[in-house]
């Protein structure tokens, strides 16, 4: 029965697995080891090299290599977990190759998501940054809860509509900056700066930059550097968005007030 | 009292980020507790040492150890615990402030903030490495415990 699995089958499945893992935010070392485990369990000596933009799968001592292009995706850790579960089952021999293939296809097609109300509340909780507790006033933090939700929603919705990279993050920053400045100028909030920093927590790429340093230390230098540069540019577009939003708000208030 | 408030807010923060990044439901609570323990350690170390490196370093060790333990117990990849529990520690806000100063042309602020970002990120990453070394020592013990529980079930 094992004979029915060809090398091509294994390589293409491994490419798909790697692609799902990479776009859902797994680290490159994890992608490589998962793919190689699957190959080993299917009795092929698979070698995999993953960078953040491309994935190479091939068998050792053979010339055939499969190249998969990947684009940086958003976090979807549930997919990482599901792939991990099925691949572990396969390695332990509880699944045969064809069921593995089917379930990988299913995971690839499935849109796994928490429902929107939960995500909105989640974004709100993230927006109350523990970093600012007892530094910012409680009213500012509670404004940040709502401003953060609106900013997060704005960024996500903009991400659906606008495919140009980094614009979505800038939109989120713009909304947060505008609202926070409006709160300060209208006298409701005491410090726009605190509201902005707190409300930007769901958007800023802090986790990405920490993970990039973990990868660099792990000698995955290329993907670490790519992630770090990506994070800096996202932060830059958020910063630019906030600056534009605050200045626009200032202009509007000067125009109304003056 | 302050510690309790910090604990609860960071728990909410971590679970919230878990919801945004779609972590599997069974790992929401362990991730939340890991994140809030790490934040509490950060807060306590900060009372003694006002630097950037030590508090982040110890918090990363806590995340590394607790994260690996809950990854074994709840059978999830360890990154799924790491990502949300890092959210209150990571230098995202400072990175944003740095890039904002960059946009506004304030060079001295830019370099200060970016430098802080780098310091925090490296402190966290080194903390993870140390935690993983410690965890490899605990792992056989933990495995034995898990096995014992499985046989008693």
Structure description:
- The complex is a heterodimer of chains A (258) and B (153).
- Chain A has ten helices and three strands.
- Chain A is mainly alpha-helical and 258 residues long.
- Chain A has two domains: 2-109, no CATH class; 116-257, no CATH class.
- In chain A, strands 1-2-3 form a three-stranded antiparallel β-sheet, covered by helices on one side.
- In chain A, α7 packs antiparallel against α8.
- Chain A starts with 6 loop residues before the first helix and ends with a helix.
- Chain B is mainly α.
- Chain B has one domain (2-152).
- Helix content of chain B is 84%, strand content 0%.
- Chain B has helices at residues 2-20, 28-48, 53-74, 78-85, 92-104, 107-152.
- In chain B, α2 packs across α4 and α3 runs antiparallel to α4 (78-85).
- Classes of the chains: A mainly alpha (258), B mainly alpha (153).
- At the A-B interface, α3, α5, α9 and α10 of A face α1, α4, α5 and α6 of B.
Q: What key phrases describe this protein's structure?
A:
heterodimer; A: 258 residues; mainly alpha; 2 domains; three-stranded antiparallel sheet; B: 153 residues
Summarize the structure in short.
Chain A is about 65% helix and about 5% strand.
Average of the residue pLDDT scores of chain B? 87
Oligomer: heterodimer
Q: What is the number of domains of chain B? A: 1
Number of DSSP helical runs of chain A? 10
Q: Walk across the major sheet of chain A and give the strand order.
A: 1-2-3
In percent, how much strand structure appears in the residues of chain B? under 5%
**Mean pLDDT across all amino acids of chain A:** 83
Task: Please summarize the sheet with the most strands of chain A.
Answer: 3 strands, antiparallel
Form type of chain A: elongated
Radius of gyration of chain A: 23 Å
User: How many helices of chain B?
Assistant: 6
Number of strands of chain A: 3
Q: Provide the structure class of chain B.
A: mainly alpha
Element string of chain B (H = helix, E = strand): HHHHHH
Instruction: Please report the two chains with the greatest interface, counting residues with C-beta closer than 8 angstroms to the partner's C-beta.
Output: A-B, 58 and 52 residues
Distance between the termini of chain A: 82 Å
Helix content of chain A: 55-70%
How many strand units of chain B? Answer: 0
Given the C-alpha coordinates, what overall shape of chain B results?
A: elongated
Main sheet summary of chain B: none
First-last Cα distance of chain B: 40 Å
Keywords (chain A): Cell membrane, Membrane, Transmembrane, Transmembrane helix
Pfam family, one (chain A): ThrE
GO molecular function, one term (chain A): transmembrane transporter activity
Membrane topology (chain A): Multi-pass membrane protein
